[in-house]
Each structure stands twice: as structure tokens, then as C-alpha cells.
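Quiz preparation item.
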């Protein structure tokens, strides 16, 4: 197999006396979709925060394309890792396009002075950023909502907008934290189709999700965390059939594959 794009080695995160993530190893290879599952409080979001520089892990290291990732969100984004959040974090009083343009600013070189003086470089980059943002809005299916305020979009559209903003940073790896949370079945199917199209662009994806149908139909590999530790890791069939996963997470055997709308 190719070298991992992302490699977490023995990552741990403690909050006082609580060990939220304990010696977790995880690798994502180029073009892969890897699922991260586990019961509530298993440490999934904390682990994402360790990967994206929001937390400095208590121990362990995170490498991206072979280099150590610094625990600084902006540097992580510039390295090529983008994410969405469990609780949508958009700029609610900005338009859809403005939200996506904000994502792009980690790739522009305009200084505050260029902007204030409206120097040619600023005007050129602003036009490029706008065109780029429009492309991503079209990619996620929001071309009809360019000028809509983020707060006026439906829940499913807000999630799509968050993904467009993440894509605007030109990532090689996209981390999605519960992308279908709160979605109806139709929106969930649309999110699945969108994630498949993102993979076709050549991006790798690491996704936290409670919808088992989604995880087992979309992912190449799945890691199950329980109480901060890796319980099982493997291909979807292996993880789905593992009695420890069924007991710790699914609660009951999933006969013949999970049903539509199965949620833990
Ligand atoms: N900033 C923090 N300070 C203290 N404890 C925290 C903090 N963040 C998370 N925890 C604790 O760490 C543990 C793991 O939480 P985390 O949110 O990572 O789990 P999760 O698997 O993402 O859960 P869920 O599926 O409910 O989102 C929990 O016991 C949580 O209370």
C-alpha cells in the first residue's frame, strides 16, 4: 500500500484526570475514506481536535505527508487538512459565497495594507477567490443560494456550505464530524453522493458518523473507538461483524447488513 497521507501515532489526550484519547494509532491513505465510529463520549471529536491542531495531544504525534503537523489550526489547514464540525460553525450573517471565500483566505497572499489601499494584487486575488468560491458552491449544489445568508439556509444546505468552505482551502484530506447529524433520509443520501464526488476529486476523507448504513456502505476502512481506545480496526465487513463492536456500539447484531436509517 502507498505511504499514509495522515498518520497518527500513539496519540493521547487527557483533560485533568480524564483520558479522552488513549494511545490511538490511525492512518489514512491517499484517496481513502476511513470511518471513525464509537459510542457517545468515546473520544472521536477529541481525536479530530488533536489531528487538526485545536488540541495539542498530551503525547504522541500526527504526521501529514510525512511531516509533523504543528498543533496550530491555520498551519494544519495550510498543510492540506480541512474539517467540518459536529455543531455547524458558519458565519451566520454572511452570505453563502462570503462563507466559502473566508475558507479560501488561507491560500491568498493579500496583506491588510493591500486590502485597505485596494492595490491590484488585492483586486486580482479577490476576483479569483470569488470565482473559486462560486465553483465550490456549484460543486456542492448551492449555486442557487450564492447570495443567501447562511442563517437562512436549510439545515442540510448549511452542512453542504460547511463542506464547500472546507473544500475552498484546497485540502488533500477532509475531516467530517457527523456530516449527516440531524438530516432526513433524503438529505443523508445526498450527503453520501456528495462525499463520493469529493473522493472522485482524489481527496482522502476521515469521517465520524453514527449512521451505520452510511459508514459501512461508504468507507474503505473503519476504526471503532471505545473509551478513548481503538477497539477494532479493519474493512467494513470485519468491523461490522465483530462481536465486540456489536456489543459496545451497535447494541444488537446487524443481520444481513444495516437497514435504512439505522442509528446507534
Ligand atoms: N474540553 C474538554 N474538557 C474536558 N473533558 C472533555 C473535553 N472535551 C471532551 N471531553 C471529554 O472527553 C470524552 C470524549 O469526548 P468526545 O466529545 O471526544 O467524544 P465523542 O466520541 O466525540 O462523543 P459524541 O459521539 O457524543 O460526539 C468525554 O468524556 C468528554 O466529556
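Solution:
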Amino acid at each position: 500500500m502507498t505511504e499514509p497521507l495522515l498518520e497518527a501515532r500513539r496519540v493521547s489526550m487527557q483533560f485533568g484526570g480524564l483520558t479522552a484519547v488513549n494511545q490511538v494509532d490511525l492512518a489514512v491513505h491517499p484517496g481513502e475514506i476511513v470511518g471513525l465510529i464509537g459510542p457517545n463520549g468515546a473520544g472521536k471529536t477529541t481525536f479530530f481536535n488533536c489531528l487538526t491542531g485545536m488540541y495539542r495531544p498530551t503525547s504522541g504525534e500526527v504526521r501529514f505527508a510525512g511531516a509533523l503537523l504543528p498543533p496550530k489550526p491555520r498551519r494544519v489547514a495550510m498543510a492540506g487538512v480541512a474539517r467540518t464540525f459536529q455543531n455547524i460553525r458558519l458565519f451566520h450573517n454572511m452570505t453563502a459565497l462570503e462563507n466559502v471565500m473566508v475558507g479560501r483566505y488561507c491560500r491568498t497572499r493579500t496583506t491588510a495594507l493591500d486590502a485597505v489601499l485596494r492595490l491590484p494584487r488585492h483586486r486580482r486575488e479577490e476576483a479569483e477567490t470569488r470565482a473559486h468560491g462560486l465553483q465550490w458552491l456549484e460543486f456542492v449544489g448551492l449555486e442557487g443560494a450564492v447570495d443567501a445568508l447562511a442563517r437562512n439556509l436549510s439545515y442540510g444546505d448549511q452542512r453542504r456550505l460547511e463542506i464547500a468552505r472546507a473544500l475552498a482551502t484546497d485540502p488533500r484530506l477532509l475531516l467530517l464530524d457527523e456530516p449527516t447529524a440531524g438530516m432526513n433520509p433524503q438529505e443523508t443520501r445526498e450527503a453520501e453522493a456528495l462525499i463520493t464526488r469529493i473522493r472522485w476529486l482524489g481527496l482522502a476523507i476521515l469521517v465520524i458518523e453514527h449512521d451505520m448504513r452510511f459508514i459501512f456502505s461508504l468507507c474503505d476502512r473503519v476504526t471503532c473507538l471505545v473509551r478513548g481506545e481503538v477497539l477494532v480496526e479493519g474493512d467494513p465487513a470485519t468491523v461490522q461483524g465483530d462481536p465486540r463492536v456489536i456489543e459496545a456500539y451497535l447494541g444488537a447484531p446487524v443481520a444481513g447488513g444495516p437497514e435504512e436509517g439505522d442509528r446507534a
